[in-house]
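Fold it.
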Amino acid sequence: GIVMWYPNLDTLDELKDPNYFNKSNLFSRSFSFKIASQPFSAGVERYAYFALDIGSCPAKKMVIKEFLHVGRNNSFEKYIEAIEISTIASFLSTEFNLIAERKDLSKVKFLNV
């Protein structure tokens, strides 16, 4: 398989930059995995499967998601949109946690994927 991601956002200016989420800024990496035959959960858009990254030693546990309906509405663009959303959520959760720490509030736990 191939995993794709954008570099982590460092500033709010980067988030507001319309060119930040340009496809030329995407990183990708090939990896080998084993995936469960059945999903353990399903959301509105995607199935979630337990999987193992067998290229790592020892193999790393992971979750792989697959769109529910493959077709025109769930093309490569839909995948890129999911990557953008994840990148933004990671940045905003980090920013929130910096403020929460000063205000003695509970932090948000966001898994970087």
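The two ends are 15 Å apart (CA to CA).
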